[in-house]
């Protein structure tokens, strides 16, 4: 879009500039003065007019060559613009199904997750998030209440991280997911609960 604005802006400016000399044949006083100078200094004005039209032509040529080429390099193909990345598609359905959030772990937490056995086996989790009081309404995280009260989670006295991996697929191509809950300690993650489930389950 910015390239199109600049392109059509330059083209329109070139058209306006090319029409300016036509106004010198008007009967207005300034136009008569211009025509008088043209007659008195013909060589000067001929060179000026050549430069004037050269600038206009250069603007048109530049707009046609530079901006389409630049646009081709910066704008992705149509199918790439509409395609949703695989990882984002994986996350979206979980966002609506279980209230997952895609949070960016701090460096220490990310390192611990990367070194964990589940990441080694299944790759990066679809999402990682800290469990908060508002996440405890449904049944999906009800098992955490065996390890901490909602008040402890709300006050931050006990901090839990939730990670979900894609473990595989059923014969019907339904995703099999593994969710693990960790209690976040100062220098380690302690697994406290886990759940293997399929995407068609309701909580």
If you had to describe this structure to a student in words, what would you say it looks like?
Residues 68-85 have low confidence and may be disordered. By secondary structure, the protein is α+β, with helices and mostly antiparallel strands. Helices cover 50% and strands 17% of the residues. Helix 1 (2-19) runs antiparallel to helix 3 and helix 2 (29-40) crosses helix 3. It has a four-stranded antiparallel beta sheet with strand order 1-2-3-4. It has eight helices and four strands, in the order αααααααβαβββ. It has helices at residues 2-19, 29-40, 42-74, 78-82, 86-98, 107-115, 117-122, 150-155; strands spanning 127-130, 160-169, 175-184, 189-198. The two termini are 44 Å apart. The longest helix has 33 residues, at 42-74.
């Amino acid at each position: 879009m910015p390239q199109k604005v600049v392109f059509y802006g330059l083209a329109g400016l070139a058209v306006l500039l090319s029409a300016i000399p036509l106004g010198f044949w008007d009967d207005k006083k300034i136009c008569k003065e211009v025509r008088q100078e043209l007659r008195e200094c013909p060589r000067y004005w001929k060179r000026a007019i050549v430069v004037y039209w050269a600038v206009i032509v250069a603007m048109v040529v530049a707009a046609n060559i530079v901006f389409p080429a630049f646009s081709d390099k910066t704008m992705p193909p149509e199918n790439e613009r509409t395609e949703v990345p695989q990882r984002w598609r994986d996350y979206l359905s979980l966002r609506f199904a279980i209230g997952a959030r895609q949070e960016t772990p701090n460096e220490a937490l990310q390192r611990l997750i990367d070194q964990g056995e589940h990441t080694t086996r299944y790759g990066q989790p679809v999402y990682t998030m800290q469990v908060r009081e508002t996440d405890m309404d449904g049944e999906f995280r009800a098992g955490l209440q065996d390890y901490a009260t909602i008040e402890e989670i709300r006050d931050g006295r006990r901090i839990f991280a939730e990670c979900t991996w894609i473990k595989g697929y059923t014969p019907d191509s339904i995703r099999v997911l593994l969710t693990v809950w960790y209690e976040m300690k100062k220098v380690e993650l302690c697994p406290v609960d886990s759940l293997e489930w399929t995407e068609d389950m309701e909580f």
